[in-house]
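Risk register update: the risk that structure generation would not scale has been downgraded. Supporting records follow, first protein first.
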Amino acid sequence: MTPTAGIGPVMLDIAGVELTNDDRELIAHPAVGGVILFTRNYSDPGQLAALTSAIAAVKSPRPLIAVDQEGGRVQRFREGFTRLPPPQRFAELYGRDADAARRAASAAGWLTATELGAVGVDFSFAPVLDVERGRSRVIGDRAFGRDAAVVCELAAAWLGGANAAGMSGCGKHFPGHGAVEADSHLELPVDTRALAELERTDLAPFQYLIRRGLAAIMPAHVVYSVIDPHPAGFSPFWLGEVLRGRLRFDGMIFSDDLDMAAAAAGGGFGERATAALRAGCDMAVICNNRPGAIEVVQALSGHHEPRLAVRSARMYRATAVDIDQSRGREEALAALAALPGG
């Protein structure tokens, strides 16, 4: 295998619990820089460790390996992993005991990081930084509550726990997905609020965690129609002027899945990926559509962004914590047990 000059700007998925020859050939393409895993890629921790090792061996620098392991209904690996509560549970505890809620959120971040690191996964697309408004079909209990200040505290605690165990975080869905009813997997949501309102509430958790070292952000496939006609993930205003400029974020920006229905606003798959990177994304994510992934890889085959290597370096996991020997695991599980229904 000939080493590539650097990490590529595409993250894609694979079909099964082992790599096929077609998988290896596609991952080896210079445009591919990451692999996202799903429940279909998992049977047990030993199998997953073998799979991530095989992915890492395809080329150098090795691809980033990611998963959605938020807790609650969005947890891809379950049997053999701690069953993590949905973030809303931490907000419920916060009203009675703020310190206990912060400890529990930190414990969840730490457990996520230690368990994923032990099987060769670099990071989870978490924490969710959306402020829930009681409207969103897709966010709901994935958020750390309806109060922006509480979301800030609990998400920061989760991130601190994850960082302590060697895992970076990816906050989502910038600049906030919690106030729209539509599910962007199925249609294009439109948020009609003014920028001033978003700045007072939804942007606060992003700004708060950026100041605390958040390494990556994923924008929403949502149009904020009073502010900009483009979905945030295709918007130079949101990604360039606001996120890079006003909030001074210099970490990784991952697009949300370009196969989602809301992403069709960007055109064909190659056009979507090109538009996302032109707007300011560092890596285009495309899942559950192998022809679409091939189109994206081909469209970005000549793409080169020198800052990608620096930004992506923070997303690789640090040395894994030995979860079988760590007293921290017992302490973390005890903190989670304090949650409502824990």
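Supporting record for the second protein:
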Amino acid sequence: MKILLAYPEFPDTFWSFKHALKFIRKKAGAPPLGLLTVAAMLPSAWEKRLVDLNVADLTDQDLAWADYVFVSAMIVQRKSARDVIRRCKLAGVKVVAGGPLFTMEHEQFPDVDHFVLNEAETTLAPFLSDLQHGQAQHVYATTEYPDIHQTPAPLWQLANLKHYDTVSIEFCRGCCLY
């Protein structure tokens, strides 16, 4: 199975740091930690690639290569996420979506084939099992919060870290203020 992990572009807002990053010759603030962590939860035999639209373009060749495109986004990335989904549909590639945007607004994305919502540590495994058996459902959701100590390390090797200013480390759920 070939999985393309696509991270939508941030608009020119606080989250993009577009203008400030030019001073330090970086393309984005941080790699997509959530998608890289999901990549670590996928079967090791699957081929995986990351396209972070904040550092690279999503090409037709990327889409032609993929069996599935996994998209994760925050609400501020809504427009770019819609564009990614539209391009996937035009290319005939199935879309699996998760992350804050889709957890809050999945009903507004009728072209997404499968939603893996809330915490991937809980919802991804049932999706993968159903997918393997040819019976993947449209929505996978949970109200559980898994033990963060059980979360695997992100697949950092999928990201070209030279393009990023910082690298985040997950140590709690949500936006932690300590």
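Strands lie at 2-7, 47-52, 68-72, 94-98, 114-116, 139-140. On this basis the risk owner (M.S.) recommends closing the item.
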